[in-house]
């Protein structure tokens, strides 16, 4: 080929050098291109409105800036007391800049995971003549993972902290079997920051420490490297999260309030260790088969089903590698560990230890973002051990491409709305501010609070917070402090009904613009007959589409259930709703409406 088309071959080589990962220009070009692509995809997805954002991401930043940690009582449920540092930039952007700008910058941030992922692949592929283009391609395949795609451009934090964890791994890889002290310090800085911003990254901190200790070489050198890494990480974690942990300790008696309260016995929470155990394997057999099981059943490890194939392929390749290992040991000649072997062992231990810790502590798919970004590289490495060199690319390439296509074919979505200039809008009732507002139930409502009254006390009742008797007494005292309102929101099951109502209103506006609502409304009647969810309002004015009877009945039933549940929850505190005084109000995230209700509360005196 090169002999027949010398100019074409020379041009291809120049392009590979320019865009490949072996040059600084190539690394910069590739990183900028991937980050820009992620930013564009984030814009196309729309305004983020995931459950966590509506519950605590917006609230926690606002509460910290307003100094409300000791004033309010868990308005964002148990998540009210997560450190707010990761949420502050988004909160400030969302309130003071056009909403699409915040989405674009989140996409850019998430796309930066490409650089450390590609660098790890570059180090793992040392000695391979193809690594100039193969390393960035494997990293790009990692960004096509199910968990990363589902979080692209949103505020949940796993994709936002992934570049830091991967950067720590890249800097912690030894060179020539040795570590550089400065790089280890920077790795610790990134690792400590990742854990401080999102505590679930602790599994990767432990995994990286174990990987450094397990690397080949003298044990004194490994111990020194692990100590330096841990010291830097702990110092940064203490610097970032120390003041927050001290605030919680001083205010409530538990630095991780309300988590691990079985140890700290803070009076406002039950003495239990709060954890989400819904996703953990129910048996050893299920744990051993977990990658195959959650590939076949994505909802086994996530509320949002995220299609993926890479974990099943990794699992099968790992089993085949383990089965072939004794035979390879018999045939191979013993040789001292090289720098390549040190990098491979550190990477392998980090990956395996991270997955095992994830499986034992969480088993929640989105916490696997870091490992999924590295999964194509891990699969390539396993197949290198199994297959002859000339066949690795022929097998691994299609397998990785198929995995990316499976993830891309059905992106998981944690919730998006259409863009508006203002990300959040909340209709605040006229009149004086109430003394307190009780957020009733376990629906995410705290995102509205920054747009309501600043001199009001907010507290949750009947939420996921592990309330103690002292908590209930505190609620009664809050309710006795003056005029109190209860805030209610329809559950997730009612949201599709609300969206249907919004679509019907849009149809009515278009019908009016086109003049279809005058006369006998023949076209509107024909459309209503063809759509079981539509009907026409009774005669008496311009024709209007309305929801069919079944949808209206479902909405009325959901509303009655909402009121009954609120009455039941408030009765635990000796309180009751004044149903006649309830008023509905509007709020929006992007173009998506989220109605809420405020009702006077009786019995606080």
UniProtKB/TrEMBL annotation:
Top-rank taxon: Bacteria
This protein's record includes keyword Signal: no
Name of this chain's protein: DUF2029 domain-containing protein
TM spans (from-to): 101-121, 133-150, 184-213, 225-246, 309-330, 342-361
Keywords of the record: Membrane, Transmembrane, Transmembrane helix
